[in-house]
Specification:
Elements lengths: L2 H17 L5 H21 L3 H5 L2 E8 L6 E2 L1 H12 L5 E11 L5 E13 L6 E14 L5 E11 L9
Parallel strand pairs: 1-6
Antiparallel strand pairs: 1-2, 3-4, 4-5, 5-6
């Protein structure tokens, strides 16, 4: 390769090197786990729907056992306020892991949780144990927000991780 052809290649490599950003995946993982725990605590307290809603993207989808799919913040707001308005309703969850894409723009968390809801068939309240998976997007403001929120019911003894 002569000097004349090496210069454009070097310039291209320099530009490409400047365009790649390094994402500290371990740091983002810790940040996202902290965000998910904070969100869980806020939801468990069940006092401020607007604060809880701020953790979802505007176009988020929520799939909760036994309920229709909920899409978009207005519908999610209705779901949250209805839940908190139900006597005895309670929700808790604990993230077990977070995985961050190398790009730093997408991630997911997974864990276990409980929904306490009225038991229409038997009267009183029932607690449903779930495993969940949430997909997160990092906004232009640098904040992680949940875009996909899915829970599936499980038997109580399966909320512990095997192995």
């Amino acid at each position: 390769m002569n000097l004349r052809s090496a210069a454009p290649v070097a310039a291209m490599l320099l530009v490409m090197g400047c365009q790649t950003s390094h994402v500290d995946v371990a740091k983002e993982k810790d940040t996202l786990l902290a965000v998910d725990r904070e969100w869980a605590q806020m939801a468990s307290n069940g006092q401020n729907a607007d604060s809880i809603l701020s953790y979802w993207t505007d176009d988020a989808t929520v799939a909760t056992p036994g309920l229709p799919l909920v899409k978009g913040k207005p519908a999610i707001r209705q779901m949250v306020t209805s839940g908190f308005g139900t006597p005895g309703f309670h929700i808790t969850w604990t993230p077990e892991k977070a995985v961050i894409a190398n790009s730093g723009e997408l991630a997911y968390t997974a864990g276990v949780g409980d929904y306490t809801v009225p038991d229409a068939a038997k009267g009183g309240m029932m607690t449903m144990h779930v495993r969940y998976l949430t997909v997160w997007r990092k906004g232009s403001d640098g904040r992680w927000r949940c875009s996909e929120d899915y829970s599936v019911p499980v038997a109580p003894d399966t909320t512990k991780t095997a192995g």
